[in-house]
Amino acid sequence: MTGAEARARYIDWLARERRAAANTVEAYGRDLDDFLRFLAGHLGEEPDLAALGGLRAADLRAFLAARANAGAGPATRARQLAAIRGFLRHLARTQGLEPLALATIRGPRLKPPVPRALTAEQAKEVASQVGTVHDPERAMRPAEQAARDTALATLLYGCGLRIAEALALEIRDAPLPGSEAGLRVTGKGGKQRVVPVLPAVRQAIAAYLALRPGAAPGDPLFLGARGARLDPAVAQRAMREFRRLAGLPEHATPHALRHSFATHLLGGGADLRAIQELLGHASLSTTQRYTAVDAAALLATWRKAHPRAG
């Protein structure tokens, strides 16, 4: 069996049996074409099944180095390595080839994406206006839906919560006016933290709960149209509808409100360690991503304002 035939069988298996997404099948097909072309030059002949079975970890590292020299970025090389791993593992299972020690091959280190925050004006607009978008076909009363969406957005921006953390809250957790107690949040890994609550957040939640008389302490704080705990997809859909009508950027999502919380605190002079605690990050390096956002905003301001920046 030639390498090209083995590649065709694997791609067919990926599409038909694994039902991989069409984009994945297409990308993996291109990646394996690149790999087989490299091997033809690297080995001096078109690779067959025996040649593929005789590959060493050094051969794969040579391919990744060649792709880097050709200008392929870390994300592309990581995807290509994933395609090759799957291909060689499939051959080991179906053709009895000696499995390659793939665990010893490390892919390129990917830089975590820089958080994309909204401007302060955009975040305030979302928190105050997202409740104006209604779907008349939903079972929930429009006034209650509006108050709920406003309270949720205000909470996400005002306290920097993840959407899952906010939707896990119950009535007994609700921060209401007249109290100065912080909000106890259960984050990833069951780790708890206490975050301070702005008066605007307390008022928005109180306005929402005023439309839910008789709610029990153990009831979910944020309800969906059918009376169950609000689904994150519904909250994300409400944000999509609002940003389309308001002309906000595509990255205006519920999670962007958390990014905005951190970015605006950092821009106002807050300590990085304090922001780490408020966000519930286990590692300071995760929080440090926001310094890149702040630096980018500073550079944009400089370019706009400095007379010699153009």
Task: Explain this structure.
The chain has two domains: 3-104, Orthogonal Bundle (DNA polymerase, domain 1), CATH 1.10.150; 120-305, Intergrase catalytic core (hpI Integrase, Chain A, Orthogonal Bundle). It is built from 14 helices and two strands. It has helices spanning 3-16, 22-43, 49-53, 57-69, 74-95, 120-129, 142-159, 163-167, 199-209, 232-246, 254-267, 272-279, 284-287, 289-305; strands at residues 183-186, 192-195. A two-stranded antiparallel sheet has the order 1-2. The radius of gyration is 26 Å and the shape is elongated. The termini are far apart. The model has no long low-confidence stretch (mean pLDDT 87).
Name the descriptors.
57% helix, hpI Integrase, Chain A, 310 residues, DNA polymerase, domain 1, 14 helices, two-stranded antiparallel sheet, 2 strands, mainly alpha
What is the structure about, briefly put?
This protein is 57% helix and 3% strand.
Strand content: under 5%
Structural class: mainly alpha
Percent of residues in helices comes to 55-70%
* Number of discrete domains: 2
Widest beta sheet: strand line-up = 1-2
Family: Belongs to the 'phage' integrase family. XerC subfamily.
Organism: Paracraurococcus lichenis
Subcellular location: Cytoplasm
Main location: cytoplasm
Write the layout of secondary structure elements.
Blueprint lengths: L2 H14 L5 H22 L5 H5 L3 H13 L4 H22 L24 H10 L12 H18 L3 H5 L15 E4 L5 E4 L3 H11 L22 H15 L7 H14 L4 H8 L4 H4 L1 H17 L5
Helix pairs in contact: 1-2, 2-5, 4-5, 6-7, 7-9, 7-11, 11-14
